[in-house]
What we know:
By secondary structure, the protein is an alpha/beta fold.
Amino acid sequence: MNKLKFEVLDGIAVITLDNPPVNSLGLELRESIVSALARANADDGVGAMVLIGSGTGFSGGADIREFGTPKAVAYPNLRTVIGEVEDSAKPVIAAIGGVCMGGGLELALGCHFRVAAAGARIALPEVKLGILPGAGGTQRLPRLLGVEAALNIIVSGATVASEKLRDTPLFDAFIDGDLLQGALGFARRVVAEKLPLRRVRDLNVTLPNADAYFQFARNSIKAVAGPYPAPVACVEAVVAAVEKPFEAGLKCERELFAILMMSPESAALRHIFQAERAATHILDVPTDTPVRPIRKAGVIGAGTMGGGIAMSLINAGLPVVLLETQQDALDRGLANIRRNYQGALRKGTLNEASLEQRLALLAPTLDYASLGDVDLVIEAVFENMDVKRQVFEALDAVIKPGAILASNTSALNLDAIAAFTRRPQDVIGLHFFSPANVMRLLEIVRGANTAKDVLATAMRLSKTMGKVAVVSGVCDGFIGNRMLARYGAAAHDLIMAGALPQQVDAALQEFGMAMGPFRVGDLAGLDIGWAGRKRRAAEFPARDFSNAADVLCEAGRFGQKTGAGWYRYEPGSRTPIPDPKVEAVIEEYRRKKGITPRKVESKEIVERCMYALVNEGARIIEDGIAQRSSDIDLVYLNGYGFPAYRGGPMFFADQTGLHEVARALARIAAQPGSDPSVWAPAPLLTRLADQGQTFSAFKGSAK
Ligand code: NAD
C-alpha cells in the first residue's frame, strides 16, 4: 500500500501513515487508508486497529497542493475516508503524537478512540487559509469538546498543546511513554473489555442559551474578522452542529466550505501559503547545498537598523558583537535595544530572565579586532558608498576566511560593495525592514559573485530568525523599493492632477493598504526622500527629480517628527490632520508646472497606484531581479502593508485579468502628461495578457 505501512502486532493492526514530511492526506494515502481498513476488517486475526503517523507526527492534514485539482475531490475524498473509519466494524484507535492538524485532526475525530502523547500539536488551521474544516471537524469537535472550546479552536486556527487538552473528552487516554506501545495497550484493553465503539457523530451536543451565545459569538467575531468571511462561516457551521442532526450539519459544513473555497479572500490566502513555500527555493541553488555554520555574528552600526538587526540575531539565540566607531553612538544604540526589550517585558511578551539572557548575548565594541571569530557580519552604517568602502575594507582585513559579509544597504550597488573586498563570493545583501526586529520581510540580495552556499546559508539564517526571505538581484531599490518608487511617483502624479494627499491615502486605505503613501511618507520622514532626490539631481543634472515634498521640506515639514509634513499633527499625536497650508503648496506647485487641476476619482487613484506597482513588478521579473511573481507579492505583503486578502500586487493583477491591466496601462500611457516609458505595459505583461496567461502560472524565462 502506497504511503502507508500495515502490520499486525499481536492481534492489533497497526496502520502507519507514511507520507513525509507531514503525512498529508493526498489521494494515494487516502486510497491506502481505505484499503488498510478493509484488510483489517477482513482479517479474523485482527481485533482492533491503531492509526498512527510516522516521522513528525500523526498528520498535518489535507495536501494543499491538491487544492483546486481533480485529486482533491477524487474518490475517496477525505470525508469518505473518515466515514469509512467511523463505520468500521472493528475499533479504530488514533494514536496522536506530533502534528495533528486540519484534516489530520478530522481523521482522528472519525476514529472510535483517541490516545495522545505529550507534545502533540492540535489545530484546525483552515481558517488561516480562508476556509473552514470541511471534513466534519466543525460537527465532531463540538460534540467532544463542547461548543465554546471547539469554536475557539476552529475560529482561531490556533495550535493547542495536547497537554492542555489532557483531561478533556478529546482523548480517551494520555500516553506518557512510547506512543505506539501505549496505543497497543489501549487497543488490547478495548478488545478484551469489548468496549462499545464510540462514534463521535452519535454524541449529543447541547448548549444552554444557544441563541444568545451564538449571537454574541457572531458579533464579536465579525468585529475582528475584517474583510474575511471564514471566521463567521465557522460560527454558522457550529450553529448547525447544535441545531441540526449530524448529517444535516455535515451538509451545511460542506456548503459553507464550498462557498469559502470560491472566495477571493481564500484564493489570496492560499496563494500566500504557496508563495512562502516557493520563496524558499532558489532556482539554481539545490536544496541540499551545504550551509556554512553560523554560531556568532557581528553587526556594524548601532543605529535604527543595526539595533533591530542585532535584536533579530539575539532573539534567534546567536551571540552578537555590535560595533560602532564612537562610544556615545554605541551607548545610544545599546540603550535603544534595552528600551525595546523592556517594552516587550512590560507587554508580557518577554520575561526578566529571557531579557537578561538576551542582553548577555550582546558584546558591544569599538574595535574591529573583536570581530575575528564571527561567522557572519551585517553592516548597517550610513547609506554612503565611501563609508561602506571604509567598513568593508576594514572587515576584509579582520574577518576570518569563509565568514559571510552582508550589507543592509537599501539601494547602493551590492557588486560595488563586494568589490571593496578580496572575497566577493562571500558578500551578500541582507536587506531588513524597519523595525528590523519586528518586520518579517528580508530581501536577500544576490550579487554577481555571491556563492551558492552563502545564499543557502542566508536562507537558513532567515528561517532561524523567523523571517520571510525573498531573493532579489542587484538593481536600484531591489524589489520592494524599486516598485515603491513607481508607486510614490504615481501618487504624486495624482496630487498634481488634482487630488489631495488625504484623498489618495483614503482611496488606497479603502483598497486595503495599511497606510496611504502620504501617511507613510510622514511616518518615515520626508527628509529621506528629499536627500535622495538632491543626490540624484547632482548625479543626473539633465533630469527633473523635483517633487512637491521639496517645498514642504524647505519649510521644515519633515513629517511626524517635526509635527508636520503632508499632514499636520497635534503635539504627541500621530493622527494626521489635513492641512490647508499643504493644499496651498500643492496648488502653487501645480500652477508653476502649468497644470490645470481636474477631478480625480478613487477608482483612478487605486488603478494608477496598483498598476504602477504591477508594471514595475513585471519589469523586475523580465530583468531577472525576482525569481517569480509570488516573491514580489511576499515583498509587498510583508514589507509594505499590502492587504493579505488581496494576495499581493501581482496576484491582484492576475485576479483582475492581465488583459484588463495591460489595457488600463496603455490608456494611462496615452493620457497627456503621462510618461510612456513608465506607463506603457511591460513587454512581459503584454505577452502574458495576449496569451490569456497569469503571472502565477508563468514559469518560463522572462527574457
Ligand atoms: P542610522 O543613521 O540610524 O544608523 C547608522 C549607524 O551607523 C549610526 O549609529 C552611526 O554611528 C553608525 N556608523 C556610521 N559610520 C560607521 C562606521 N564607519 N563604523 C561603524 N558604525 C558607523 O541609519 P539606519 O537607518 O540604521 O540605516 C543604516 C543602513 O540601513 C543604511 O544603509 C540604510 O540605507 C539601510 N536601511 C535603512 C532602513 C530604514 O528604514 N532606516 C531600512 C532598510 C535599510
